[in-house]
């Protein structure tokens, strides 16, 4: 998958004798595609002669010319970036941009000058490294795993063709674009690191000029997750859930949730994991449940809390990427994110596989807290009693337990004859009972 992806996305750029690299990406609406590269690969000209641009892809280790129809250009002088607007290219795989984090393992993929000779077996090269610094708000610094110089040429000669190439974060089988390389770490190539421009900064400039976003979960709508989310239900529950969708789409977006929660909707916290489709399917499912309870919950962000006469309990919705049981998750979370827990909080969890036990009773939580509270107390300079007091009445439940409750309720004998709004009303009342009783 990796090679095929880079075959389509990473390109070699030639312009009037200058050689560099670039990446192809389409906007979130699939209306246009874009070639993003370093402006100096075009001699920092403002009047680009499109007829002089040559673009190549590597396919089966051979360079193949690509015909592109250029529509417009955006030049970001401050950061040495050029964005060329193209007609939409159907063969570009849909992939997402992401904000990088310190110590992220990355790959920068381009066409170095050291491999431009016809005798070379390959022309594109994947160089791996680690993000080690952010010198300012838009620069990414990447340490390479290997030196740039060789016996026959220095680093500056070898690496110059990398200008304009993409910096990708590879997560399992998925690649995310996080930046564009613009220069070596030093003009002489003395150090094995490169500087790039954050794709988030580039995307921001594109939006300012064109009012269009590059693919990122933040800018999406819950509409794209409807089919996969509702597929777990059968009638009449499927219909009850589907009628909640317009209210949710109108009032809540992934962006609004991220503005409220940041990346703390996944565990471990990660800018990459929030791009996972399963994260947003879980959120849509949770919003459907709360919307059935009361549509006011999605109209005024009431889904972040559960209200009752005695007190309001905060709700944290989390997708756990590395745990499949609730006790495992809770031990890890308490040990590493204790400061993010509110007294009496309700935690609604989704895991990659549904655990056998979908709820943690209070006694189980108490035992887990007792096992690790001394460690937390030492690290945070708290008394053990303070830890246990803050965790008291906390509830942890897998979201599938709520789904099971909804399915069981609609299948109960006294409810089998109910339909439409009457069934939805009774189901909403049952959801209230369950949530307030957790």
Describe the structure.
The structure is a single chain. The protein is α+β, with helices and mostly antiparallel strands. It folds into 2 domains: 2-210, Beta Barrel (Thrombin, subunit H), CATH 2.40.10; 217-437, no CATH class. Helices cover 32% and strands 27% of the residues. It is built from 14 helices and 19 strands. A 7-stranded antiparallel β-sheet has the order 5-4-1-2-3-7-6. It has a 6-stranded antiparallel beta barrel with strand order 8-9-10-13-12-11. The longest helix has 19 residues, at 362-380. The chain is elongated. The two termini are 44 Å apart. Residues 198-407 form the ABC-three component systems C-terminal domain. This is ABC-three component systems C-terminal domain-containing protein. It holds the Pfam family CTD4.
Strand order of the largest sheet: 5-4-1-2-3-7-6
**C-alpha Rg (nearest Å):** 26 Å
Give the biggest sheet: 7 strands, antiparallel
Shape by Cα distribution: elongated
Strand-residue proportion: 25-35%
Residue stretches low in confidence (pLDDT < 50, at least 5 long) are 149-153
Percent helix: 25-40%
Q: Which structural category do the helix and sheet elements fall into?
A: alpha+beta
| Number of discrete domains | 2
Q: Give the averaged pLDDT, no decimals.
A: 87
Count of DSSP-assigned helices:
14
Instruction: Give me the count of strands.
Output: 19
Distance between the termini: 44 Å
Keywords:
Thrombin, subunit H, 2 domains, alpha+beta, ABC-three component systems C-terminal domain-containing protein, 7-stranded antiparallel beta sheet, 438 residues, single chain
